[in-house]
Amino acid sequence: MFEDLRDLYQDVILDHGRQPRHGARLAAYDVTAEGDNPMCGDRVRVFARHDADGRIGAAGFEARGCAISIASADLMAETVTGHTDDEVRALAGRFRDMAMTGAVPEDDVAMARLAPLAGVHEYPSRVKCATLAWHALLAALDGKGESGRDR
Amino acid sequence: MNVTTRPTPGDPALLDSAAIRAEFPILGETVRGKPLVFLDSAASAMKPRAVIAAMTQTMETQYANVHRGLHWMSERTTEAYEGTRDAVARLINAPDRAEIVFTRNSTEAINLVAHSYGRGMLRPGQAVVISAMEHHSNIVPWQMLRDAHGIELRVAAITDAGELDLSALEALLADGRVGLVSITHMSNVLGSYTPAQRIAALAHAHGARVLFDGSQAVVHRRIDVQALDADFYAFTGHKLYGPTGIGVLWGRRELLEAMPPFLGGGDMISSVSYERSTWAAVPHKFEAGTPAIIEAIGLSAAVGFVERIGYAAIAAHEARLTDHALARLSAIEGVHVLGRAQDRGGVVSFTLDGAHAHDVATLLDRQGIAVRAGHHCAEPLMRRLGIDSTARASFGIYTTHAEIDTLAEALLRVREFFA
Fold first, then answer.
1. Is B17 a member of any domain?
2. A43/B contact by beta carbon, under 8 A
3. Same domain, B273 and B386
4. Of B372, B368, B59, B102, residue with least CA distance to B256
5. Cβ–Cβ contacts within 10 Å for residue A10, how many?
6. Can you tell me the distance from the alpha carbon of A85 to that of B74, in angstroms, rounded to the nearest whole number?
7. Does residue A151 lie in a domain region?
8. Distance in angstroms (rounded) separating the CA atoms of residues A73 and B399
9. Contact B362 A5 (CB under 8 A)
10. FRET label pair with B27: which of B96, B124, B171, B192, CA 20 to 30 Å apart?
11. A50 occurs within a structural domain
């Protein structure tokens, strides 16, 4: 019945949407920001902690949203760990392009991991679900969200 | 057009569904290779041939600007445009055609009242009461009035069943400071009707005027503004099988006359000089600029269409559909229908365990079924209900029992997919 929907709801997405590994507020974080999608009311708050070398040591999120937005936030948290802020900004740009066009860049390990989300490009109203957490993370890195420690 | 109700022994109000559906060309379309099952009429309804033809005919045979030309085309178009005012006055039993003001939609109608009645006739320190199940269009204009004009905004609670709590409303009215009660006549999320007559009586007993947002209600049951004893009544054309871009504000003549204009410009003046201008009589005082002429003529056709079918038949048809939908959806394990108001119309919101409303909507869409999913422009209500979003199936005169069965069967497959 839903064979064609497997492009959108791949097992990775259903799995991470149901049981996110990073779907919690970090005990300690130095940046956070909230993103929301006013069209649907989905909300995500992302948290990140930088290590002494400036790389992201851990990322997490609290979200209320659809399977796509939760899975995307979870895969993002996994992907950005170990990267510098500038690298994360570049990843976000590549991810957005992939979500919009469906084209998975070659020899791009990070995007290969996020590729299950590329199927959203066929569902214009769902692209924002996939990019919501990334927007929130960029806002957090840019200092546009408040930062805190176990607020 | 030849749509009539089919007299059936014991069930005089049964609609001839096939004949009605044949009036809506779009219902013959397929979506993703499947027949369209359109269950999103509360967002906007499909358009019957009569409406499409009236608008096309206007543009093809009889079109010019209104209220200004001294030529044949303008005179005929003005007649047709003004004829809509008569049709709408008849539809809602307004005592005076001059009390029908055309707006873009319900939102603009409510903004008109918030501006012209709110700033023009309410004094700072007075209060406006809304309910906890309003559409954003009946929340935000009052917040803007509050912030600009020193008006207090009060919110009447709803019960857990999704009905207006009349004792809560009465308590909010008790201090006599409320100037206006502005409340939906039917919730776009829960489907609950509000007891408009009792609300109006309560408001009037405490010296307040009352506005009803009839965007949903006017689609499903006969509105009689005099019987309701309303002061203002707002609705939009596009949910009533008419075009977008045309809405209606009805207001008592003495109120409309006392209120200052909303927008300024052409068509709403009596005379203009650089020193001062004087306003046209109502309703034109509130209709600045070239109006939505073609859309108004389309609305007239929509009103005619609805009247030919008749509200008795429409209400009976939709009551049966709603009962059927409530029974079918409630029987599915994991589906939770929101609200259990005694008096409810053809709007059913629900959640499905283990699946977000958006995912539900996407999977239903794959089966050709159009529902709405999200917060339905009613975020405060969602918070009151303790949820983020719902899926919503809403019905029109063309909706069939079979379509509701299709929805129920499709939901079983959705549940399986996310299990």
1. no
2. yes
3. no
4. B102
5. 17
6. 64
7. no
8. 39
9. yes
10. B192
11. yes
Q: Please report, for the domain that includes residue B410, its CATH number.
A: 3.90.1150.10
Interchain pair A40, B358: CB under 8 A: yes
User: How many domains does chain B fold into?
Assistant: 2
Q: Angle CA(B231)–CA(B235)–CA(B237) in degrees, nearest 5?
A: 150
CB proximity A64 to B under 8 Å = yes
- B417 contacts on A by Cβ (under 8 Å): 2, 5, 9
Measured in angstroms, the CA of A80 and the nearest CA of chain B are apart by 26
Q: Strand, coil or helix: what is B130?
A: strand
Domain count, chain A: 1
Cβ contact (<8 Å) for A126 and B418? no
Show the tokens assigned to A7. Answer: 């492009």
For the annotated catalytic residues of B, the residue numbers are 377
Query: Is A93 a member of any domain?
Result: yes
Number of CB pairs < 8 Å for A and B?
50
Of A2, A64, A68, the CB nearest to B366: A2
Sequence letter at residue B283: P
Q: For residue B13, tell me if it sits in a domain.
A: no
Q: Are the beta carbons of B388 and A126 separated by less than 8 Å?
A: no
Residue B68: give the domain boundaries. 52-307
Residues B357 and B297 in one domain: no
Asked whether residue B302 falls in the same domain as residue B314, the answer is no
User: Cα distance from A66 to chain B (closest Cα, Å)?
Assistant: 5
* CATH for A31: 3.90.1010.10
Whether residue B212 sits in one domain with residue B143:
yes
Q: What is the distance between the alpha carbons of residues B61 and B72, in angstroms, rounded to a whole number?
A: 12
Question: Among residues B255, B288, B307, which one ends one of the domains?
Answer: B307
Does A146 reside within a domain? no
- Of B275, B307, B339, the position where a domain reaches its end is B307
Q: At what angle do helices A85-101 and A127-141 cross, to 10 degrees?
A: 170
CATH number reported for the structural domain that contains residue B175 in this entry: 3.40.640.10
Residues of chain B with Cβ-Cβ distance to A119 below 8 Å are: none
Which value, to the nearest 10 degrees, does the dihedral of the CA atoms of residues B219, B221, B222, B227 take?
-120
The answer to whether A41 contacts B374, with C-beta atoms less than 8 Å apart, is yes
Which positions 96-135 of A are in contact with B (Cβ < 8 Å)?
123, 126, 129
Question: What is the residue-level pLDDT of chain B in tens, covering all 419 positions?
Answer: 445 444 444 454 568 889 999 999 999 999 888 999 999 999 999 999 999 999 999 999 999 999 877 898 999 999 999 999 999 999 999 999 999 999 999 999 999 999 999 999 999 999 999 999 999 999 999 999 999 999 999 999 999 999 999 999 999 999 999 999 999 999 999 999 999 999 999 999 999 999 999 999 999 999 999 999 999 999 999 999 999 999 999 999 999 999 999 999 888 888 888 889 999 999 999 999 999 999 999 999 999 999 999 999 999 999 999 999 999 999 999 999 999 999 999 999 999 998 999 999 999 998 999 999 988 888 889 888 888 889 999 999 999 999 999 999 999 999 999 88
Q: Check whether residue B359 and residue B221 sit in a common domain.
A: no
